[in-house]
Write a structure and sequence with these properties.
InterPro entries: Acyl_CoA_acyltransferase, BioF2-like_GNAT_dom, FEMABX, PEP-CTERM_FemAB-rel, PG_Glycine_Bridge_Synth. It is a single chain. With 353 residues, the protein is of the alpha+beta class. The chain has a seven-stranded mixed β-sheet, sandwiched between helices. Strands 2-5-6-8-17-9 form a six-stranded mixed β-sheet, with helices on both faces. Helix 5 packs across helix 8.
Length: 353
């Protein structure tokens, strides 16, 4: 399927190859300039997914005349609980093919489908931001929230609807303080408690340390404190002129302090100062708490048409917490002591995709 050395192939045709160690720089150079590429298309995710999560990766790229013309990161997830799948990309909100021309996109899509058939997975999932596979089943569960931000802080504050702007001002009046460049230890204590309270397993501390070590300044932790005590934290990713607050949450008492509103406002200010011009609030499931929170900030939902090539599966998977069959598990998880949820969480979370 993947041709590396076909001497009979014309120079101007598209060849599909697997990412090798010495290809990573070329891969990232393409991603950096491709309009549809995202932070989650960067080559470094391959080692993170394989080494920290234990999933085998199949990173494919298209090449013509020695130049990369398209990329497709794929990871194979094997789970006794959640099945066998090929995803672009697990634990990332975006993925799918990024290509500079129609032939490269088509070749990469065909190669991914052929690989899914060869591996006999349940399904291939491409996490596209736009509808690219109208003839494939599409999941209509997630939306993203993305909006330009102004270089002027005051204009950004005024762009937040009145009620939510009042929450930002409440956090300011209560003396909340934001520190950028925080440590994973500071972040993890808060984030682990936050997701436990939502009934969601947390990934390992080592995973978040690996993200910070790998991406450096492009991965920044913001910690919000009240009277010297951390109450909220978020890990944000920077890519080109975008900021993406990705892993974030607050402790229980952070709600009464408006800690989340203050935190995201602080990230927005920080992003502007770093030169960002687009704020990506990430994905949410329709009609959930986070969905309404982001709408109240003045962001409009944009559908995420994740597309599926079904192999052994007969229908699009539903591993969402909104699935009624997970309700009892979520309630039980919310009652776990925090050390127990931190110990058990990584084993489950890494397979959720």
């Amino acid at each position: 399927m993947l041709d590396h050395t076909d001497e009979n192939r014309p120079d101007d045709t598209c060849a599909i190859k697997r990412l090798q160690r010495n290809d990573a720089q070329r891969w990232d150079a393409f991603v950096e300039t491709a309009p549809d590429a995202t932070f989650f298309h960067r080559a470094a995710w391959r080692d993170i997914i394989e080494q920290e999560l234990g999933h085998r990766c199949h990173y494919l790229y298209a090449e013509r005349n020695g130049t990369i013309t398209g990329v497709l990161p794929l990871a194979e997830v094997r789970s006794r609980l959640f099945g066998h799948s090929l995803i672009s990309t697990p634990l990332c909100v975006y993925g799918g093919v990024v290509a500079g021309d129609a032939e490269s996109e088509a070749q990469l899509t065909r190669a991914a489908a052929a690989l899914a058939n060869e591996l006999r997975v349940g399904y291939l999932e491409l996490r596209d931001r736009e509808l690219r596979h109208a003839d494939w089943p599409v999941k209509d569960l997630y939306v993203s929230f993305r909006k330009p931000i102004d270089p002027d802080h005051e204009k950004n504050l005024k762009a937040i609807p009145r009620k939510q702007r009042a929450m930002v001002r409440k956090g300011i009046s209560l003396g909340l303080e934001a520190t950028h460049g925080g440590t994973v230890d500071d972040f993890y204590r808060i984030y682990a408690e936050s997701v436990r309270n939502l009934g969601t397993p947390v990934l390992s501390r080592k995973y978040y340390q690996r993200l910070q070590q790998t991406f450096g300044e492009a991965c920044e932790i913001t910690v919000v404190s009240h009277q010297g005590q951390p109450v909220a934290a978020v890990m944000s990713f920077y890519f080109r002129d975008e900021v993406h607050p990705y892993y974030g949450g607050s402790v229980a008492r952070g709600r009464e302090l408006a800690a989340n509103d203050f935190m995201y406002w602080s990230v927005m200010q920080r992003a502007v100062d770093r030169g960002a011009r687009l704020f990506d609030f990430g994905r949410s499931k329709r009609d959930t708490g986070s969905y309404h929170f982001k709408k109240h900030w003045g962001f409009e939902p944009q559908p995420l048409p994740y597309a599926y090539h079904l192999v052994r599966a007969t229908d699009v998977p539903n591993l969402s917490p909104t699935n009624s069959k997970y309700r009892l598990f979520i309630k039980a998880w919310q009652r776990l002591p925090l050390p127990v949820s931190c110990a058990l969480g990584p084993w489950l979370a890494k397979d959720l995709g």
